[in-house]
Amino acid sequence: MSDPSNNFAVAREFLTPDAARSWDPRQGTKVVSILLPAVGSGGSYVVTGSQTASIDARGTHTNTNNATFSHDFKLVRDDRGRWRISNPPADQIVHAYLLSSVMRSVSVYYWARSDPWLVPDRRFVHAGLNGAAEALEMLNRGPAAQLAPGVAEMPAVTFTSSNLDPAAGELSITVARAGSTLTSEQQERLLAQWVWTLRQFGQLK
After folding, report:
1. Which residue from 50, 53, 86, 162 lies 20 to 30 Å from 38 (Cα-Cα)?
2. Which residues pair with 72 in a beta bridge?
3. Segment 153-166, tens digit of pLDDT
4. How many whole angstroms separate alpha carbon 121 and alpha carbon 138?
5. How many CB atoms lie within 10 A of CB 144?
6. CA-to-CA distance for 82 and 27, rounded, in angstroms?
7. Is 90 exceeded by the pLDDT of residue 107?
C-alpha cells in the first residue's frame, strides 16, 4: 500500500468502494521491522508486528523504539466474490527494508529569522517526482516545531502542485490569487525556497 502513483490507485483496488473513497494514507506512515502472520478467520484477521518509526503528515521522522503494531483487518466480499478490506490502517504501512525504495529523506528550506540564509528542515517524502510535489506541500505547512523559533514564517500563499508530468520531468506550480499581494522581495524569497527544495529532485528539468 505504499505506491503513491495516481493517489495510491493500486492499493485502493484491494479496498471496498467506501474505504477506497475515504482512505487518506498521506496522513502518516508507520515503519515496521517485523510483521507476524495474520491470525483470524472469516472476515477478521489481526496483523501484529514491531514498529520502529513513524512519519507524520509533515514528513517528520520519529523513532518509536519497536512499539507494538497491531491492526484488525475486516474483509468483505464484493459483488464478484473477491475479498476486499473495509478498514485499512489510517496510515500507510511500510516495512523498514523497503523504506529507502519507497521514501527518501530531503530538506525543505526556510529563511533564518534574522540572517539572510536558508535553513534546511529534514523531511521524508515518497521517492520520485511525487515526492517533489509533497516536499512543496510540506514546505508550505511550515517548519518542524523545534525549528520554528529560528526561522521566518512562510507567507500566506496557497498553491497547487498537481500538474505533475513525470515523463517530461516537469512540475507546474499554480499560485492562488493571494500570491499577487506579495512584495517583489517576498516573491523572490519564496522562489528561492522552492528552487532549493526542488533542486534535490534530479528528475526535474
Report:
1. 53
2. 46
3. 888 776 655 556 65
4. 10
5. 17
6. 28
7. yes
Q: Give the list of residues 6+ apart from residue 110 with CB closer than 8 angstroms, or none.
A: 118, 119, 121, 139, 143, 147, 151, 152, 154, 193
**Locus of grid cell 508530468:** 165
Cell representation of residue 103: 521514501
64 or 173, greater pLDDT: 64
73-105 CB burial, b ≥16 within 10 A, e <16: bbbeeeeeeeebbebbbebbbbeeeebeebbbe
Distance of alpha carbon 41 from the chain centroid = 33
Length of the chain: 205
